[in-house]
Specification:
By secondary structure, the chain is of the alpha+beta class. It is 36% helix and 18% strand. Strands 1, 2, 3, 4, 5, 6, 7, 8, 13 and 14 form a ten-stranded mixed β-sheet that branches. A hairpin with a 6-residue loop joins strand 4 and strand 5 (79-83). The longest helix is centred in the middle third of the chain and has 27 residues, at 304-330. It is globular, with a radius of gyration of 23 Å.
Length: 480
């Protein structure tokens, strides 16, 4: 049988952290070049003929295997999943994102795929920048992927949206395997189906929290995003209930007139200009963003008179940044090479005098990033949540003073995830930043700063493309 492979990109929310949870506001999200890859291989036979109908492996981690038995129900109840193994066994643990993707995607497919669903083997691979783990085995770097050498729960994430990329790639691979002619990623209809279904899966798997910007980026790539109405998911019953699969398909396909998808995804609304690139710096420590969001939203609901002007001002400043970057990206330069040379020279010496008009506007980008950061720190203080903690402030300030670095932010929900920087797209500037980060030691008073001395420039950069079909042969050596 023919293998199917799909990948989906990482993300970074440059503007709109916390705001994007409310439909009144938007988020500025860039796709990143790091990807989660999923390969699906069909197995000969029928459901129930072997000990497991679905075997899922993540070979970069030790003991990362999940085995499932599928139960296809009558009365359009969809497909239920039973994880095999002994719960009391130390190696047994559930993967809610994989399990939820299987249940909802196979239930969606069960309405039109009337024949028996063939048993499958699923393999998951992650580009190395999703995790802070050092290389630990002889297979590190094989076929472009790293052996992390640890159990999955012990891996340190960098905050690039691994769960959204996993759900999107897995959902797309299942759709492409079982219904290749009706869910093509190259077509708008196929992308829309994937987006709606992946949003449902990811929302259910994480307890119906979050705005869905990470899934939108995983499907479509860089975009300006306005979230869907949370009420869209209110009427969807639990898997296995009578009519569940039929209602799920109606909701995903947009045929439920009372629950229409209203997310706004503007792919042309986010661009980086020629000469700039986006860089992520990992601080080797993640944040519990769900708990942080709950605390920020609690403060907002208790202090609406203080919160609304702050939210509105942040939205205004984010829009200014977005429009400035887009205007710069759309400029047609008569002498682009001369412009780049003058831009690099001026920004490396933090000297504005030698810049042309478009070059001078890069300084406006720097100023707008600084203004946004000041508003974020205000939110952080008033909500008593470490959105931009002192150690991150010190790191951002220091990086922003390096020649060739325009500025940066603690993206998304903030905390101790990787920081995002805009810089001149130049190898010399990048090497200077890497050297600086390797020797960086925070002098902040953070209680846990001593536990986080390591800063590393990740290998990712901005990427406009979303989910895509891959050549399954590229994973040879990792997957049987």
């Amino acid at each position: 049988m023919v293998d199917v492979a799909v990948s989906a990109p990482a993300k970074v929310l440059i503007g709109g952290g916390y705001l994007v949870l409310d439909r009144a506001y938007t988020g500025l999200v860039f796709g990143l070049s790091a990807r989660i890859h999923v390969r699906v291989r069909g197995q000969h036979g029928t459901l129930g003929a072997s000990d497991a109908d679905v075997v899922v492996r993540s070979p970069q981690f030790t003991g990362a295997e999940w085995r499932y038995r599928l139960h296809r129900n009558d009365d359009d109840q969809g497909v239920e999943v039973e994880q095999l193994g002994e719960p009391q066994n130390a190696s047994f643990f559930r993967n809610s994102f994989v399990e939820t993707a299987l249940v909802y995607t196979l239930s969606y497919l069960s309405i039109d795929v009337k024949h028996s669903l063939d048993p499958i083997m699923i393999a998951i691979l992650a580009d190395s920048d999703y995790y802070s783990q050092p290389r630990t085995s002889s297979m590190a770097g094989h076929a472009g992927f790293q052996d992390f050498g640890v159990p999955l729960p012990e891996a340190h994430k960098t905050g690039l949206g691994s769960s959204a990329a996993l759900v999107t790639a897995l959902t797309a691979a299942l759709l492409h395997h079982y219904a290749p002619n009706s869910t093509k990623l190259s077509e708008d209809h196929g992308k829309s189906t994937l987006h709606n279904l992946a949003q449902i899966v990811h929302s259910v798997a994480q307890g119906k929290v979050g705005s869905g910007f990470d899934v939108a980026a995983a499907v479509y790539g860089s975009c300006r995003y306005r979230r869907f109405s949370p009420s869209i998911l209110d009427e969807l019953d639990k898997p296995g209930s009578p009519g569940f699969a039929l209602r799920l398909k109606s909701l995903v396909d947009g045929r439920d007139v009372s629950h229409q998808w209203d997310a706004e995804i503007d792919r042309g609304g986010v661009k980086l200009p020629r000469g700039l690139r986006l860089v992520m710096c990992d601080v080797d420590c993640g944040s519990q963003t769900v708990g942080m969001a709950k605390k920020v939203l609690s403060w907002r609901s208790q202090h609406p008179q203080a919160a609304k002007p702050l939210w509105d001002e942040l939205q205004h400043r984010n829009d200014e940044l977005r429009l400035l970057l887009t205007d710069l990206a759309n400029q047609k330069l008569k002498e682009p090479e001369t412009h780049m040379r003058r831009l690099k020279q001026a920004l490396q010496h933090l000297d504005r005098d030698g810049l042309d008009l478009s070059g001078a506007l890069f300084y406006e980008v720097r100023n707008k990033l600084s203004t946004i950061r000041s508003l974020i720190r205000r939110m952080s203080r008033e909500a008593d949540v470490p959105i931009e903690p002192p150690s991150q402030t010190a790191l951002l300030d220091a990086c922003s003073e390096l020649p060739g670095v325009v500025g940066g932010v603690v993206p998304g929900a903030g905390g101790y995830d990787a920081i995002a920087l805009l810089m001149i797209d130049d190898d010399e500037v990048l090497e200077r930043l890497k050297t600086f980060c390797e020797t960086w030691q925070t002098s902040s008073s953070d209680a846990d700063a001593a536990a986080r001395p390591r800063v590393r420039v990740l290998g990712v950069r901005e990427e406009t493309e979303g989910a895509r079909v891959e050549d399954a042969s590229r994973y040879h050596g990792w997957l049987a």
